[in-house]
Each structure stands twice: as structure tokens, then as C-alpha cells.
């Protein structure tokens, strides 16, 4: 049997018997037991009744969390001339074209979001094998292939979160920090769940949202009642 430290054991005791709780109860449990020496990230994971191997069951989207993520987002933009200047003025961390492509090809990826103007996609397309597995490939469906570079950069910097279902039918994301108030965390959780609900694909059959779990980086997880979460 695995042995746990005092902090982990105390946290597990707090979570014992807590299943299918409300969003507010889950947030309170996670926040109050996030006692690491750093500001833990509060994370959400959702099991969906989809098979993403089928195109009509793919789930992906973007949501602007009302209270941000608490994370400093590093943004790279593929653009030229006036659009490159627009990106820099909006706060982009890295801006370039062929030069940026070469940096990425070398394996140096120092950004969390990648945006591109449509004319840059022939260049960006060559980076699919590098950016794709990291979920960094610009895509017009989530607003990262756009001529409105300013809005895209500001959205990324302001706490916008992208989500995409994985092979096992799971969607997950960081939705705030343990230092956030319970009210702000609960608001972010509901916003994320609502966005995933609205992204239900046409091919999804039966129960779409099957399980919702919230946890902190170092803490145990707690299951939120699906009926309660979608009813808020």
C-alpha cells in the first residue's frame, strides 16, 4: 500500500466521501487543500462521450475565462510588415516570419500560444509536426489564424483558454490559481464547462459530459456533479 506524507494524508481525509459535489463545494475543497509552497494551478478535466477519431465527434474551442488563468501567456505571431508591428504593439512576445520558422524548426519553442495571419500559413504549415503535437498549431476555428492580430494577442494575454479533446475523450485545462478567491475560481469553472457544453459535436450520441473533476497541481481531485455543473 502506498504511503503518503502528512499533508497528502490530511488532504485525502478532507476529500473522503466527497463525490458529485457542487461547483462551489469542489472549488472550496481544492483551494483550501492547495498548500504547496508555490501558487498551485487549479485544473479541470472532463470525460466526454465522444470518439475524436471520427471528425464529427471532435471537440475543440476557445473560452475567455472571466477572471483569467493567472498564468503569464507567451505569445508568438507569424506576420510581416504592418501586421508584425501591430502584433508587437499588442504585446506579442515573439514576432517573425521565415526567421521564426527556423527558430521553431530548431526545437526552440518559447511560447504558449501561436498566432498567424492567413498569408503566413504556407510557412507555418511546414511546422505542423512540431507545433501540432503541442497543440500550438494556429487554427481559424479558435481564432489564431486571423488578420485581427491585435485582438488575438490581447485575448491570449487576457486569459483565453483553448481546449481540444484527446484520444481518450478527455478535455483538460488550467482555469486559475489557488490564490484566486473561491468565487472567481467557481466562475471560471462554470465558464469552461459551459464552453465545452456548447462545443458538443454533431456526432456525439448519448451522454456527452460523463465526468468532471477539479484538482490543484499537488492536491487530490474531487468530482463535480454533471447535472449540477450544467445547470448553473
Describe the structure.
This protein is of the alpha/beta class and 232 residues long. The chain folds into two domains: 18-69 and 160-228, Ribosomal protein L1/L10, rRNA-binding domain (Ribulose 1,5 Bisphosphate Carboxylase/Oxygenase), CATH 3.30.190; 75-158, Ribosomal protein L1/L10, domain II (Rossmann fold, 3-Layer(aba) Sandwich), CATH 3.40.50.790. It has helices spanning 6-15, 23-32, 81-90, 98-105, 121-124, 128-131, 149-157, 182-198, 226-230; strands spanning 41-48, 60-64, 75-78, 94-96, 113-116, 160-164, 170-177, 209-216, 221-224. The strands form three sheets. It has a four-stranded antiparallel beta sheet. Strands 4-3-5 form a three-stranded parallel beta sheet, with helices on both faces. A two-stranded antiparallel ribbon has the order 2-6. Helix 3 (81-90) links the parallel strand 3 and strand 4. The protein is globular.
Structural topology:
Blueprint: H1 6-15, H2 23-32, E1 41-48, E2 60-64, E3 75-78, H3 81-90, E4 94-96, H4 98-105, E5 113-116, H5 121-124, H6 128-131, H7 149-157, E6 160-164, E7 170-177, H8 182-198, E8 209-216, E9 221-224, H9 226-230
Parallel strand pairs: 3-4, 3-5
Antiparallel strand pairs: 1-7, 1-8, 2-6, 8-9
Helix pairs in contact: 2-8, 3-7
Subunit structure: Part of the 50S ribosomal subunit.
Pfam families: Ribosomal_L1
Function: Binds directly to 23S rRNA. The L1 stalk is quite mobile in the ribosome, and is involved in E site tRNA release.
Amino acid at each position: 500500500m502506498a504511503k503518503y506524507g502528512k499533508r497528502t494524508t490530511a488532504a485525502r481525509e478532507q476529500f473522503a466521501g466527497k463525490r458529485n459535489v457542487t461547483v462551489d463545494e469542489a472549488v472550496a475543497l481544492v483551494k483550501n487543500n492547495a498548500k504547496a509552497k508555490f501558487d498551485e494551478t487549479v485544473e479541470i478535466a472532463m470525460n466526454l462521450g465522444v470518439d475524436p477519431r471520427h471528425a464529427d465527434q471532435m471537440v475543440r474551442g476557445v473560452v475567455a475565462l472571466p477572471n483569467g488563468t493567472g498564468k503569464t501567456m507567451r505569445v508568438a505571431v507569424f506576420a510581416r510588415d504592418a501586421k508584425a508591428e501591430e502584433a508587437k504593439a499588442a504585446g506579442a512576445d515573439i514576432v517573425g516570419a521565415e526567421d521564426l520558422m527556423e527558430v521553431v524548426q530548431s526545437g526552440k519553442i518559447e511560447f504558449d500560444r501561436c498566432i498567424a495571419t492567413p498569408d503566413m500559413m504556407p510557412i507555418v504549415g511546414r511546422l505542423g509536426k512540431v507545433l501540432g503535437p503541442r497543440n500550438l498549431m494556429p487554427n481559424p476555428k479558435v481564432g489564431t489564424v486571423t488578420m485581427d492580430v491585435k485582438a488575438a494577442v490581447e485575448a491570449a494575454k487576457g486569459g483565453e483558454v483553448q481546449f481540444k479533446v484527446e484520444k481518450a475523450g478527455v478535455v483538460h485545462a488550467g482555469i486559475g490559481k489557488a490564490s484566486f478567491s473561491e468565487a472567481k475560481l467557481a466562475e471560471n469553472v462554470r465558464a469552461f464547462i459551459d464552453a465545452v457544453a456548447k462545443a458538443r459535436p454533431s456526432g456525439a450520441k448519448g451522454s456527452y459530459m460523463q465526468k468532471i473533476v477539479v484538482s490543484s497541481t499537488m492536491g487530490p481531485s474531487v468530482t463535480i456533479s454533471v447535472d449540477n455543473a450544467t445547470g448553473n
